[in-house]
Amino acid sequence: MIVSIIGLGYIGLPTAAVLASKKVKVVGVDVNQHAVDTINQGKIHIVEPELDNLVYEAVQNNYLKAVTKPEKSDVFMVAVPTPFKDNYEPDLSYIKSAAKSIATVLERGNLVILESTSPVGATEKMMEWMGEARPDLSFPKFGDDKFIADIAVAHCPERVLPGQVVRELVENDRIIGGVTTQCAERARELYKIFVEANCLITDCRTAELSKLVENSFRDVNIAFANELSLICDKLGINVWELIKLANRHPRVNILQPGPGVGGHCIAVDPWFIVDSAPDEAKLIRMARLVNDNKPNFVLNKIDCAVSLIGRSKMELKIACLGLAFKPDIDDLRESPALSIMRKISLMGFSEVLLAEPNIFTLPKEFKDKEQLVSLVLADEAIRAADIVVLLVDHTPFKSIDLGLLSGKQIIDTRGIWS
Length: 418
Ligand code: SAJ
What we know:
CATH architecture of the largest domain: 3-Layer(aba) Sandwich
Shape: elongated
Structural class: alpha/beta
Bound molecules: ligand SAJ
CATH class of the largest domain: Alpha Beta
CATH superfamily of the largest domain: NAD(P)-binding Rossmann-like Domain
CATH topology of the largest domain: Rossmann fold
Oligomer: single chain
């Protein structure tokens, strides 16, 4: 059996490597020539623990190769990005081009699985695009278990947590949604090769919504925590202590407030539900707005700190601790810390000292501000600064000598020093 994986990013590459480790021949397909060349050398172009060894072994043992155009295979898995457009409408253009490229090599008996997080209806849309390109092949019809088509099509959304992808790919339950039951069962056979947990079968529309709902559930719960942080600020109450105490109730489990919600999943996927059901998804939309507004609250707190010191910003130095979208990773995508840092660099401080233990050079966008912004160690940043803003709860920041903070204005958005 040959499995082709279209899209060799944070999901496609680990899935390819895990399948290859089970002695399945895997062809990874990506339009990015640099990614293809790197993988064929047994190396990786993304940061993810344990992935480098897995890819190296897979390439060495000839179970994994990367190419830029799809080849004939038994199974095609699509793991391409699904961003949203300016108006929060889902952008399915990557799925469309993947469908069109797969169609050129598709054969009777093939199975096509969409793994990308997608709005309801996207799996059927992908099937439609393949069908338009290949009128000689028959495709399944949603819910029609009697009709056996030439091609099987299913949706199996990825659910792995960045930083723990290799383990979670194997240990997490999978939701497998077929266009028909037979399609779902065929897809389950494939996942059973490497998934040690349950592979639960449903239809493709339910599987699509299930993934969106999982991330929206988290977003709504983080919004609740973020809203509490605003309420507590107004009432002069320590939100971290409040949450700790409330969570002692056996049926309460409040998440942690922060400077906003980042990453390329939780800040995006709820909008797909809002787009499909704008009048109904009121709470989900509001949660997105609450979380997206949290960086503005942090910036206001910085202005308050300046007023408290009573000097002009031109005379003050500010330290920003953390830039990644969550702790102990180097991923800056959609990071609220990065967007706050961008605004801080325009506020008129005499110096901005950035500490981010997981990156080693100042991000390109601050290169023309090297007079103002510098990347330094956390201790050094704190020592020099009048205002300290903690943006990410990276582990090393938790053991900073608290004595260094005395006499400074502190804005601790993660509550690690509270
Ligand atoms: N965050 C908070 N407070 C919290 C928890 C998280 O502010 O209590 C923030 C983080 O700092 C970060 C953002 O939320 O900025 C998202 O981080 P995360 O760790 O909650 O999630 P992701 O984006 O890394 O991964 C999520 C996961 N989804 C769920 O946990 C429901 C993962 O399982 C999905 O596979 C992934 O999205 C995805 O690819 O969709």
